[in-house]
Specification:
Number of domains: 3
Distance between the termini: 78 Å
CATH superfamily of the largest domain: Thiamin diphosphate (ThDP)-binding fold, Pyr/PP domains
Strand order of the largest sheet: 3-2-4-5-7-6
Low-confidence stretches: none
Number of strands: 20
Mean pLDDT: 93
């Protein structure tokens, strides 16, 4: 029998984190978890990153998880308010299927149900925004439950989990056996489609005259662009990406049409509206892709949907064929199945027409930007054109929700997989900057550019201290239009310009950054944007660029929501 070692709950928890090869823990210190923090002091293989708010710390863990492909860990040191601050970040991570491990202090077990200081039912609180939530019942079970938390978070579909640890559980002592490696209890699950389904799908694609592939998170998260392109080339058909996953496919490939849907580009969106066969490859065809409407997808198309989550198949649109499978594995097998069939039907004309339209769209995008370059105020399209030229091709981009970032999503070219992280279906403002800090720690060799509006950055600006203290050198571009842009656009377009709560004021963010010890830059012209970006990338420190964007350059994305008010 293996020899056991006596440890406190805090020591055992840290050992469980080490066993998972955890490299970073984001967190905010609190008295409820002092035993755990004391154990982290001795863990030289784990970098603790102290944050200023548990919400933004969770976004950092989320960004780290998405950029690294590993779990991101957030530690809320205090029960009650420290734990409740996690909720928004965990809801965001759940919408993004991000494997965040959230640890929080909890009320001493002897104080439960006594209206104790900072008492709240943390298990009930976190249940709706996580895959699973645990209250650790005893010191002896803390390692078991942390192992289970990692296993659940990383099982398909991935997502956040919550572990609540009472003060007395962490301070108590128990004997622990040596830990087994994660490979013993967390094997990767690879589901493969049946030969019959592959043959049927291959025949449908070969017989299509207007086929299109929609690549989603199942391709992006596995960095499986080569398998997706090989499949598209086997059919010679265009491939689009679902919104927020524009980096699933590197920019510039002849078959890559960019992001589709209500927030995508007109060419990719048209392809999905007109296709006769749609291969949904690792995507739910969810809200951001379709608004759940046949306005954004051809009602008469035969849909082949490949997803590892059974409940996602056919959930929003009827399908002709569904396969429960890992998207990259299915793509490789489907490419092989296609190679054994006779030549396809006449899809070449469809693809040739698309390619001409795609080139015309890109040219028009540049022409529009150049035409706006002489405007009195910086226009979003002109700004994105400058950024396309000024930023390195290996840049990682994080974005907020809001009208300016939504316009940016398909106006930036993503040259490498793992280059775009957005709030996705949660639509969270205040996400981008913190997410960028986590992503930078995951990929320190790549430039990380965080795009935000002035409102969102104002929510999270205190994390500039975190960036400075830990040397996390991201570049944050604040598109400052002095308003909550999406809402002001709706008030302008549908409510007779009856503005209330839409306009905001902010300090000069370049000066504020300098007060925090970061580098600050101001840009009021496009030339100043280029100069500021070059200086920010070269400054060897966290940088903020305050860009004055035309307050009138607003766009109503959700016009469908206000159809009842349209004239």
């Amino acid at each position: 029998m293996s020899q056991k070692t006596a440890m406190t709950g805090g020591q055992a928890a840290v050992q469980a984190l080490q066993n998972e090869q955890t490299s970073h823990v984001f967190g905010l210190i609190g008295s409820a978890t002092m035993e755990l923090f004391d154990a982290l002091y001795d863990a030289s293989d784990i970098q603790f990153v102290g944050v200023h708010d548990e919400r933004t710390g969770t976004h950092m863990a989320d960004g780290f998880a998405r950029a690294s492909g590993k779990s991101g860990v957030i530690l809320a040191g205090q029960n009650g308010p420290g734990a409740t601050n996690l909720v928004t970040g965990l809801a965001q991570a759940k919408a993004a299927f991000s494997p965040v491990i959230s640890l929080a202090g909890a009320l001493a077990t002897s104080h439960h149900y006594k209206d104790g200081f900072q008492e709240v039912d943390q298990e009930a609180l976190f249940r709706p925004v996580t895959k699973k939530t645990w209250n650790v019942p005893s010191t002896a079970r803390i390692q078991e439950i942390i192992q289970e938390a990692y296993r659940v978070a990383n099982a398909p579909r991935k997502g956040p989990v919550q572990v609540n640890m009472a003060r007395d559980v962490l301070s108590g002592e128990a004997e622990f056996a040596p830990l087994t490696p994660p490979s013993a209890y967390r094997m990767p699950a690879v589901a493969a489609p049946s030969p019959e389904a592959l043959k049927q799908a291959a025949q449908m694609l070969r017989g299509a005259s207007r086929p299109v592939i929609v690549a989603g998170g199942g391709i992006k998260n596995e960095r499986a662009h080569e398998a997706a392109f090989a499949l598209a080339e086997a059919i010679n058909c265009p491939i689009v990406t679902s919104p927020g996953h524009g980096d699933a496919l590197p920019f510039g490939h002849r078959l890559n049409a960019g992001q589709m849907g209500p927030r995508g580009n007109e060419v990719a969106s048209r392809l999905v509206k007109e296709a006769d066969v749609i291969l949904a490859l690792g995507t739910r065809l969810g809200f951001n892709s379709t608004f759940f409407s046949y306005d954004n997808i051809n009602k008469d198309a035969d849909i082949i949907q490949i997803e590892q989550e059974p409940t996602a198949i056919g959930r929003y649109f009827p399908i002709a064929l569904g396969m429960i499978a890992d998207a990259p594995t299915a793509a490789v097998m489907l490419t092989e199945a296609l190679s054994s069939l006779d030549d396809r039907a006449l899809a070449d004309d469809w693809t040739k027409s698309y390619q001409a339209e795609r080139q015309a769209y890109l040219a028009k995008r540049d022409e529009k930007a150049l035409a706006l370059a002489s405007a009195e105020f910086i226009q979003p399209a002109a700004l994105y054109h400058r950024l396309r030229g000024a930023l390195p091709q290996d840049s990682v981009f994080t974005m907020d929700a809001g009208t300016l970032c939504l316009q940016a999503t398909d106006n930036i070219n993503y040259h490498q997989p793992g280059s775009l992280y957005t709030p996705l279906d949660f639509g969270l403002v205040g996400f981008s900057f913190a997410c960028g800090l986590g992503a930078k720690l995951a990929v320190p060799e790549r430039p990380v550019i965080s795009l935000m509006g002035d409102g969102g950055f104002g929510m999270t600006v205190s994390e500039l201290s975190t960036a400075v203290d830990y040397g996390i050198n991201t570049v944050t571009i604040v598109m400052n239009n002095q308003c909550w842009g999406a809402e002001k656009a709706y008030q302008r377009d549908f409510f007779g310009e009856r503005y209330i709560g839409a306009n905001i004021s902010s300090p000069p963010f370049d000066k504020l950054a300098e007060l925090y010890g970061a580098k600050g830059f101001k840009a009021e012209t496009l030339d100043e944007v280029t100069q500021a970006v070059e200086a920010a990338l070269a400054c060897d420190g966290p940088a903020v660029i305050d860009v004055a964007v035309d307050p009138a350059a607003l766009y109503s994305f959700r016009r469908d929501s206000f159809a009842h008010r349209a004239k």
